[in-house]
Amino acid sequence: MIYCYVPKVACTNWKRVMMVLTGRGKYSDPMGIPPNEAHIPSNLKTLNQYSIPEINHRLKSYLKFLFVREPFERLVSAYRNKFTRKYNTSFHKRFGTKIVRRQRKNATQEALHSGSDVKFEEFVGYLTDPSTQREEPFNEHWQTVYSLCHPCHIHYDLVGKYETLEEDSNYILWLAGVSDYLRFPTYAKSTRTTDEMTAEFFQNISSQQQMQLFELYKLDFLMFNYSTPSYLKME
Q: Name one GO biological process term (predicted).
């Protein structure tokens, strides 16, 4: 199987499952694998570690899948995880300080140094600023799915949805012939970003910036059949 992982779309649990499948018996319970271990690059093989003929062979003959999520819900989830959690200091330093410097008038020295209190409005300002993407590609946590997984170039067998995560994931495990001993781990996360929560975050975003943001993620909405959110001020 080939899995194109999309951050903020259950990718930690899918990586855990892949580690169980490829671990030659080292792991049996996905939830027994610590989340940070699932993200260590050397724990799973990626396509670019193979030769071109080997890559082509795998793309032709393996089961290929990815999981998608409503684009703005994924974006708010990324913001909440990377900019409102105290422990994500590496993101605060790398992106938060840059966002504060560009987006906040009269920022304090402390804010410029730590970058730990980025507001959602400032994050949106940073994303819609044309110079941001000119500097470097978006970080994978808020990069568009079509840029991460290239669905126009790679013929995926399955596109699962976060909204039907358990059902879709277990169907893939059934297709892989492992559903007798492996189920996709599910647990109701009370802190999960919902549609209502996303709508609240968008309340303070101007209609002009909402339009710009929608343009950035428009292909993800269209490609994966998500309707334009009703809370958007599309003028």
A: carbohydrate biosynthetic process
Identify the sign of the CA torsion 20, 25, 28, 33.
Answer: negative
Q: CB under 8 Å to 76, separation ≥6 — which residues?
A: 120, 193, 197, 198, 201
Report CA dihedral (128, 82, 44, 176) to the nearest 10 degrees. -80
pLDDT tens digit string along 130-140? 999 899 999 99
Instruction: Check residue 187 and give its pLDDT.
Output: 73
How many Cα neighbours within 13 Å face the side chain of 229? 25
Q: Hey, what are 198's tokens?
A: 């996303």
What's the DSSP call for residue 191?
A: T
Q: Is the pTM of this model over 0.85?
A: yes
Percent of the chain with pLDDT over 90: 89
The model's confidence at residue 141, banded by pLDDT at 50, 70 and 90, is very high
Q: Count CA within 13 A, CB hemisphere, residue 72.
A: 27
Closest listed residue to residue 71, CA positions, set 168, 166, 13, 144: 144
3-state helix, strand, coil in the chain (%, to 5): 55, 5, 40
